[in-house]
Amino acid sequence: MNNNENYDIFLGRFKEVLRRNSLKYTKQREIILQTIYNSTEHFTPESLYGEIAQNVSESKIGIATIYRTLSLLEKENMVTSISFGANGKKYEAGTKDHHDHMICDSCGKIIEFCDEVIEELQEKVALKHQFKIIDHVMQIHGICKECQD
Questions:
Q1: Over the stretch 107-148, which tens digit does the pLDDT of each residue have?
Q2: N or C: which terminal CB in the chain sees fewer CB atoms within 10 Å?
């Protein structure tokens, strides 16, 4: 696990989100949250569903519950997503430090990176245009080394 936010804090944030949205805290929702928190890969709702079904024998979680929970978590910035257009989204917990993504258009591999030169250049461009950056997402699409070979 390479998450920077402690699970208890993450869970507390989740409980507050549920309370603000007048939703009940359930064991199923916590299983979803815990699986997301412990995930080291980007995941689809279907792969999250499969992981839970494989690893949590007592879970009776439907795919619709996973979709609804992911939608809520994304709205609350507790998960982030990368859109693959007609092929849907892949998600990750919103607990990591800022990073950008390179996405292979051939195999779908996602490579995370952070480059200080790029970050500084974005700040310079924003300053030049008197623009205050609140957030940004960078996705570079291309072909990974394995697919090029």
A1: 989 999 999 999 999 999 999 999 999 988 899 999 999 999
A2: C
Question: Are 65 and 27 spatial neighbours (Cβ–Cβ below 8 Å)?
Answer: no
| Segment 18-43, tens digit of pLDDT | 999 999 999 999 999 999 999 989 99
Alpha-carbon distance of 126 to 130, in angstroms, equals 6
Asked if 34 contacts 7 with a C-beta cutoff of 8 angstroms, the reply is yes
Buried b (16+ CB within 10 A) or exposed e, 46-76: eebbebbeeebeebebeeebbeebbebbeeb
Antiparallel, parallel or unpaired: β 100-104 and 139-142: parallel
Structure tokens given for 30: 């916590």
Give pLDDT tens digits for 40-49: 899 999 999 9
